[in-house]
Every structure is written in structure tokens, then in C-alpha cells.
Amino acid sequence: MEQIPQDGVVVAAGTVRGTQSFVHTLSECWRRPSLTALEVLWRWAYGVPALLVLRHEGLKILQATPLDYAALKSMTVVDPLGSAQTLVKALALLLPRVMGVAMWLAPLLVVVWVIVSAVGRTVVLRRADKRLHARVGTLIVLQAVRVVALQGSFAVWFWCMERVAEWTVTGPIALGGEPNLVGYFSLVIVATLGLFTLWAVVSWALSVAPLVAMLRGLGVVGSLAAAFRLGPLKSKLVEINLVMGIVKIALIVLAMVFSATPLPFESVTTPEFLFWWWVGVTVLYFLGSDFFHVARQVAYLQLWRAYED
Predict the structure, then answer these.
(1) Would you say residue 134 has pLDDT above 80?
(2) What is the rounded distance in angstroms from the CA atom of residue 237 to the CA atom of residue 202?
């Protein structure tokens, strides 16, 4: 079956191919590094200062908390229950101070993120297509809605982790048995991947609503309503969002693998080398993540233009 690329969108037998078009979009984004550079710029313009603030507040908390560092350093996987008790004692000391800082710092970081991301997304998308409308105010509200939904997904994840802990760890201990740590970690991995995939499937409308607002010049309500009424385009966007979820998981796995690569040579490596190795892996992970964020938005845009035509 012949496939003809049309502005990055693959059409075969009169049908737009979502995933195959996404491959063409990746190539186009690779040929336009300015898009990824702008994405990296606005994300890191927020992320670096945010990390510095978190580091500053974290060090203040550690300096003011009388932790038993000797016990923390002596923790080992051979004695998981003892290590857990040590962590519980440390958290009991840290949590009040952490919550005190989080009460004002977390809302501040969220508000700044919402504003910066709306401006950054506008700049990147208008760089990709100058015909788009600048709707910064609308994007700020839409981004806030998405953040609230994302926080809800984290709340569901945390609830699932609590239930898993009850079934495999605290429940058996309360009955005088042994905790099932293998079962715990297995269920944690399965539940996390499942919720991650579910979010990728159901969050497509929140991801595409800002683009709809810029394409049609709509407000918050209009763009959200239009995002849920996309007709045949909906399945293509869900398909791409699901692929992006898989790509994110793959990036995380690759980052974990590369982070663990020097560990077999720990006896001949220095802590400084390991630190900079992990910093490099983290930077590469974020660069890759930013690239795929851009590719997803451009793929949405190209599919929309294809259906408009």
C-alpha cells in the first residue's frame, strides 16, 4: 500500500495514519532543532531556579533536623524491616518541617509553572506554525486544569500504593506473618505502569485543548468542548498520546539502565565520577523528554491541518 507524506502526515488509501505520521513528525522535528531548543529553554528556565529553591529549602530543613545519620548510612537491603523503621523515624522528624515549607512553596511553584508553561507553549507552537493565535490567558487556565487533573491522578496512585502496602506488608505483619516484599514491588510496578498508561489514554483532550484554542482562537470552555468533539481525529490523537506514554516509559527505563551502568565498577570509580555520570544521564533524559513533547504537539498540529484540508 503506497504511503504519501503530505506535510508530515501519512495518507494511505485515503486514510490518515496517526502513528506512521508521527514517525514523519519526529524526522521533521529533528530537522528543526530550534523547536526543541525553545522547549528546553522555557522548561529549564523554570526547572533550574525551582531546583535551586528546593535545594536551598531542603538544606535548611536538614540542618535544623537532628537526624541519626549513622543509622541512615547503615541501612541495608538485607534487613528491610530495620531499614524501614529507620526511615520511619527519620520521616517523623522531617515531615513537620517539610509540610511547613510545602504549604507555601508548592502552590508558588505550581502557579509559576502554569504561567511559564503557557507562555513557553505559545512560543513553541507559534514557531512551528505562525498562523496560530496567541492565547496566553486561555492557555494559563487550561494548564491549570491539567495540573489539577494530574494531581488527581497522583492522589489515585498514592491511594493504590497504600492499598498495595496493606495487602502485602502491613496486613501480614499485623497478623503475625512475614511481609511479601516481592509481591509489594511487583504490584507497585504493575499499578504504576497501568496508571501511567491510563493517564496517557485519557489525558489526550487536556493536551490538545491548548492547541485547539490557538488554532480556532477559542476560550477555555470552547476549547475544552471542542477537544472532546473531534470526530475521526480523536482516535488518531489518542493513538499518538498512547505512543508517547510508551516512549516516556522507555526513556525512564533507559535512564535507569544507564544510571546503573557504572555500578559494577564502583570499586574503581570515584563518587565524583558517579555524581557527574548521573547528572549527565539526567540531562540527556530531560533533553529526550523535551524533544518528544515538541514532537507530540507538532503531530497534533499536523493531523489537525490534514483533517482541515
Answers:
(1) yes
(2) 11
The Cα 251–Cα 288 span in angstroms is 8
Q: Name the residue with cell 480523536.
A: 234
Average pLDDT value for the chain: 83
- Cα–Cα distance for residue pair 75/156, rounded to 1 Å: 30
Q: What is the dihedral of CA 139, 140, 146, 149, to 10 degrees?
A: -150
What is the amino acid identity at position 302? Q
Indicate whether 24 pLDDT > 60.
yes
Grid cell digits, residue 292: 518528544
In order of 107, 238, 240, 305, the CA distances from 301 in angstroms are 31, 14, 12, 6
Residue showing cell 529553554: 41
pLDDT score of 308:
64
Average pLDDT over residues 85-113: 89
Q: Where are the domains of the chain?
A: 1-31+236-309, 42-128, 141-229
What number of H helices and E strands is found in the chain?
Answer: 11, 3
Instruction: Please provide the size of the chain in residues.
Output: 309
Tell me the three state secondary structure of residue 16.
strand
Closest CA relative to residue 284, chosen from 249, 258, 260: 258
d(CA 55, CA 286): 19
Nearest one of 246, 262, 257, 245 to 284, comparing CA atoms: 257
pLDDT in tens, 165-185: 888 888 887 887 887 888 888
Grid cell listed for 194: 497501568
Report helix, strand and coil shares of the chain as percent, to nearest 5: 80, 5, 15
Cα angle at 162 between 161 and 163, to 5 degrees?
A: 90
5 has a pLDDT exceeding 70: no
Single-letter amino acid code for the residue at 210: P
Which pLDDT band holds residue 13 (cuts at 50, 70, 90)?
very low
What are the tens digits of pLDDT across the range 238-260? 778 778 878 888 898 899 899 88
